[in-house]
Design goal:
With 128 residues, the protein is an all-alpha fold. The chain has a domain at 24-97. 89% of the residues lie in helices and 0% in strands. It has helices spanning 2-48, 53-57, 66-127. Helix 1 packs antiparallel against helix 3 (66-127). The longest helix has 62 residues, at 66-127. It is rod-shaped, with a radius of gyration of 28 Å. The two termini are 25 Å apart. 8% of the residues are buried.
């Protein structure tokens, strides 16, 4: 029973890690995109001397312009590239952490099996 309980705990850890990492990366990506969008909009507005792309987009009945496409495209590229770099680092960290957790669990399970085998041998000698 002890072995089954440990495997259930290990399995639940393994199930939650991808969910949490995806949530963290999506939140990070949207945050980077939002900040980049406002930064690029301000830079384009200063460079052109006209309205910022975000001001143009928020006007009712507006249509895409080269400035709005450039602003949103650059913000998406920035968020995408930074998110890829961060997710690779996060993946490596999670993989190493899970490997260490699995190794520790395996070693403790092997130790428990050894103790259980010794206990069974002692019980057999007492009754035998």
């Amino acid at each position: 029973m002890f072995l089954v309980e440990r495997l259930i705990i290990l399995r639940s850890i393994a199930a939650w890690v991808p969910t949490l990492s995806i949530t963290a990366m999506r939140t990070t990506s949207f945050t980077i995109y939002q900040k980049a969008k406002y930064s690029f909009s301000a830079a384009i507005g200063r460079a052109t001397g006209g309205d910022e792309p975000l001001v143009i987009v928020n006007k009712p009945g507006s249509t895409p312009t080269a400035a709005t496409i450039a602003c949103f495209g650059a913000a998406g590229c920035t968020a995408g590239s930074l998110t890829v770099l961060l997710s690779c680092k996060l993946y490596v960290h999670i993989s190493l952490s899970l490997s260490l957790i699995a190794l520790r669990k395996y070693r403790s399970l092997r130790a428990c099996e050894k103790c259980d085998a010794e206990f069974r041998n002692e019980k057999q000698h007492e009754h035998g």
